[in-house]
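Quick one, probably user error.
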């Protein structure tokens, strides 16, 4: 069914190929050239003068914004799941074999809501938006929390490669479509006993009396054929790349192609080692093949680049939000 979009260029496939090519070239890493102050000064200059900025964002950006999956935040909203099932973080909880669908979807309603339909505790995405709002930019991200759009980034300049917490897909593979889940999430949160505060955000009631199940009739179904649904998150070849996904992929391809020989800043934010072939390695490869390009890596304890492009790179170790504060 995916061949219906063959007329569109595939930016996702293109970036994966660039990433794989990079593995054949780079061998040793560097932490950049110059002091932190010198590298920040260079980054400010590149942000000002670049013809185009390609932002590549990973989980570290949302972590910096306070969207943590463990610790205080997890204990506040999932204390009952922790007590009953021994789950200690949101990531592992997504793979837990819950005893029934009512419990599983109660978990997912909370997981989706507190990562997709609320603003993060810290305004890191807004700070980034202020830095690039008047620039010629495009964003590719493996994050699925929709925080770029919540912060005001132009939807036409965003490519969410791995899905969206705000979408369901049918288990029927013939239906290569996605379905918005916001209305369902709000109903499922209310059914568990969450209450809204003065700003309309769901919170745990003072007595902490919330349910770990939703009513059977609230279990989400596909609106087209009544089949079961799952999250639209890339985990295997059943992931639905719908029309919106393909158009975003094509827009990314066009942006990269248009500026491949320009003064481009490849700004990598919080990309770790889980899926480096989607953002990190392609950014290295595109910097290597364009002597006017600059690669910038902002990350906490993982700011590095290949030696082959060290002279074209900026590596800033530290919390991304704090670094952006230094940029303003």
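Nope, works fine. Designed sequence:
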């Amino acid at each position: 069914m995916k061949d219906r979009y063959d007329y569109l260029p595939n930016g996702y496939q293109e970036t994966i190929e660039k990433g794989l090519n990079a593995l054949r070239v780079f061998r040793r890493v560097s932490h950049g050239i110059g002091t932190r102050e010198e590298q920040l000064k260079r980054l400010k200059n590149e942000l000002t003068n670049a013809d185009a900025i390609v932002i590549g964002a990973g989980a570290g950006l949302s972590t910096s914004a306070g969207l943590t999956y463990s610790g205080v935040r997890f204990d506040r909203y999932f204390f009952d799941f922790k007590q009953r099932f021994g789950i200690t973080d949101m990531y592992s909880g997504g793979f837990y074999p819950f005893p029934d669908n009512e419990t599983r979807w109660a978990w997912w309603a909370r997981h989706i809501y507190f990562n997709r339909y609320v603003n993060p505790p810290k305004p890191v995405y807004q700070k980034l938006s202020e830095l690039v709002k008047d620039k010629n930019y495009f964003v590719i991200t493996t994050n699925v929390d929709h925080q770029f759009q919540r912060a005001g980034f132009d939807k036409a300049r965003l490519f969410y490669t791995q899905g969206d917490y705000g979408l369901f897909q049918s288990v029927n593979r013939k239906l290569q479509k996605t379905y918005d889940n916001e209305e369902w999430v709000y109903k499922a949160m209310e059914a568990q006993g969450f209450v809204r505060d003065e700003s309309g955000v769901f919170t745990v009631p003072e007595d902490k009396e919330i349910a770990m199940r939703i009513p059977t009739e609230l279990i989400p179904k596909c609106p087209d054929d009544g089949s079961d649904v799952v999250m639209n998150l890339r985990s295997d070849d059943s992931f639905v790349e719908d029309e919106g996904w393909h158009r975003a992929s094509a827009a990314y391809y066009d942006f990269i192609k248009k500026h491949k020989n320009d003064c481009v800043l490849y700004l990598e934010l919080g990309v770790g080692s889980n899926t480096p072939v989607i953002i990190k390695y392609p950014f290295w490869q595109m910097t290597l093949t364009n002597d006017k390009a600059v690669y910038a890596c902002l990350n906490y304890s993982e700011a590095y680049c290949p030696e082959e492009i060290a002279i074209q790179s900026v590596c800033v170790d530290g919390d991304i939000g704090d670094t952006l504060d230094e940029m303003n």
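The mean pLDDT is 95.
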